Amino acid sequence: xxxxxxxxxxxxxxxxxxxxxxxxxxxxxxxxxxxxxxxxxxxxxxxxxxxxxxxxxxxxxxxxxxxxxxxxxxxxxxxxxxxxxxxxxxxxxxxxxxxxxxxxxxxxxxxxxxxxxxxxxxxxxxxxxxxxxxxxxxxxxxxxxxxxxxxxxxxxxxxxxxxxxxxxxxxxxxxxxxxxxxxxxxxxxxxxxxxxxxxxxxxxxxxxxxxxxxxxxxxxxxxxxxxxxxxxxxxxxxxxxxxxxxxxxxxxxxxxxxxxxxxxxxxxxxxxxxxxxxxxxxxxxxxxxxxxxxxxxxxxxxxxxxxxxxxxxxxxxxxxxxxxxxxxxxxxxxxxxxxxxxxxxxxxxxxxxxxxxxxxxxxxxxxxxxxxxxxxxxxxxxxxxxxxxxxxxxxxxxxxxxxxxxxxxxxxxxxxxxxxxxx
Length: 423
Fold this sequence. Notes:
Strand content: 15-25%
Distance between the termini: 36 Å
Shape: elongated
Number of helices: 15
Number of strands: 11
Radius of gyration: 27 Å
């Protein structure tokens, strides 16, 4: 992908109005929790290049590490910046609980250069007037017409139909990264001109954001190998965020997630299966001093005999961390539903894992129920027997099975991440 070095915008020689505009654009530009195209949309709206924009900030409790307070902080920051730039806006709030007991809260920002645009966008949403809504969001009329007539351009076929020089020119130009509406079969050349106008405005007003937008090669222009590499980078970035969250976890003893089980914990949470505790498995010798949490308090003891602790991962709704949840019937019902969802998904993953994998029965992983609210433990079939037999070689096999399961989950995760695999 072509990269160009752009000059920094300097304030010397600017009048007060130009300085104010630059400061407002920088405020929007620095909203790093928004995607580059979302920031671009807001800046184009601010500059009068498109009538309105629509931004969503959402909290989804199905995401194991999602925090409502973080979402509210982003909402407040966006409110503050929009107010500072004098953009008109209205926030529509939607809240729902799905069939599996997970809460979703959405803050939908309707943003316009003036109040009239915001009101018209809200009316179009309420009346479900898709034509008007897309017009207000800056879609060209030809694109809107094609959407409703079924004459949208097949981007892959279109890209293949271009000559090599045409493709090279478009990539060099970078305009494809600034298309935020579908192209039509009959008018894509004119629609590209609109994208070019917006590209030029972003390049002029916010060079930093411009470079951020053009740094990625457009997906339509990627080869199969490039697409796979792009997906790989996206997935690794997502998993790295999960790993950072897992690194922060500590148990009742204040200890972090153990290395031998960490990747299993990471991958389960990536599959939206919320883990609550884990153990990599240990062979402990007679005379060792050990600490453990017995469910109510931390206990310390000296082992009177050798002890084997097989590896395991506990899965439970995060609602169970709320104090006095047992006194709230609504919370108890949500916990049951969420844990039932986790259990179904886990069973499907284990079914896939063992579809062709052949190991001794006692080594296979299974789910053991814990309590009456649907929590459960992922462990080896022979875990309880191993605690009695205390065979170190078996412990090593059981640990390895957890590791292999984590590897399998990572292998199939791209299909789940890109919604090509229903689990």
